Input
Amino acid sequence: MLKSIGNYFKAPPIMPVTDTKEVIDKRYKKYRIDVFSASFVGYTVFHLTKKNISPALPAIHEEFGYSNLQLGLLTTALYFTYAFGKFINGMIADKADAKKFMTAALLISALSNIALGFSPEIAKFITSINPDLEYISCIGQPLLLLIMAFCWGINGWFQSMGFPGIAKALAFWFSNTERGTVWAFWSTSHQFGTMLGALLAGWCIVHYGWRAAFIIPGVVNLLMCLFTYAKMFDKPQTLGLPEVEEYREGTVPSPEEADEEANLTYFDILKKYIFFNKTIWILAFAYVFVYVCRYGTEDWIIKFLVDRGDDMGLATQKFGSLAFFGILGAISAGFFSDKFFKGKRTPVNLLFLAGVALSVFAIMHNHFGGALGNFIDIASLAGMGFFVAGPQMLVGGICAVESGSKKVASAATGFCGLSGYIGAMISGAGTGWCIDKFGWDGAFWFWILAAIACMIILLPLLRKGV
Output
């Protein structure tokens, strides 16, 4: 059975180039549009079944009375499986068919969300069979919380399969001279998805309750699987097209480079460009703190606003500014690093991380009410979204890919992603603990110190010209 599954996901074979230049040009243009649209739309809708947890947390807390630490453990379930899944799936994706890999991930993510929406019914059914299981004393948690964490953890593993296939596709369909711009525009799908995910979940909660915030996005993504399967494609060579560098720039690897690549196994390439690559290790360590900031703000800021007195509608509207300005931040980070810093990413990362710290500091000290208080909230959240989007895209994305071979593009981003989601795990439970222990100011200082730590870690890359 495992062999059959492996054969199904195996990348298509390389096909010889037989078409004329005119036909190649026409096909390349079509497939590049298809691949980018599948990558963009696909990653956007992935977030409908990933970022719906944040608006649901206040309603889950209200119905079941879970503490902030327990809610943090629920969010951490996804980050735990996502962290390790991103690196493991990154290595698998380098050898897998991007079309099937990405679509299968979206399918099972949708199903796990639907299951989470029905988790109270699942818990009731289990306790009707054995009432003693209502509370798992050896673990110290209610059965329902464990069922929700299990569903959310399964979701995390298959969510982690989405990005590696996309990273592979973007690396092979777009050349170095255009990849920065293309990647910057693609990365805005995260912000679009975060914004749409929060707004859709918030609407579902207001009209139908928190369960609908998982069931309805799950059904939507079941339908979106048809789109990603139709539009995503593996490497150009599997369609009888030349490599993108040859197509775009008329360049091919030198005989020495070709021989070296041919004589290296996949594991040798992993060792050379990832395991023994100092730059990748610095990027990975820094990415831990990028994700403490990213998921601290994304997952907890709505609950902060509700706890402070905003209703769910106003809180999700304010949250929309974080996601919307994240779109502008990602594009700006790519543009500034290309045009003003001539391809150097570290100066932009340092500037944007300082902006993250200042934005968090601003909302922490916003004690105004009325229109002025709402304006400062929106401006602070816009700053958080704008400035965190740059390091999120650059550190574990473009920088990781550019520091090695595109043959391990998925593994490189997956390796940094592993570190990033270790940071997300720390952010989930750590933020909940800080709130319970020190109040919301404790959470804000947690995020500010994470941004400062990230800046310190990245400083050596200034001298390396990264």
The first strand starts at residue 135 and ends at 136. The first helix runs from residue 2 to 9. The chain has one domain: 30-236+263-464. The chain has a mean pLDDT of 87.
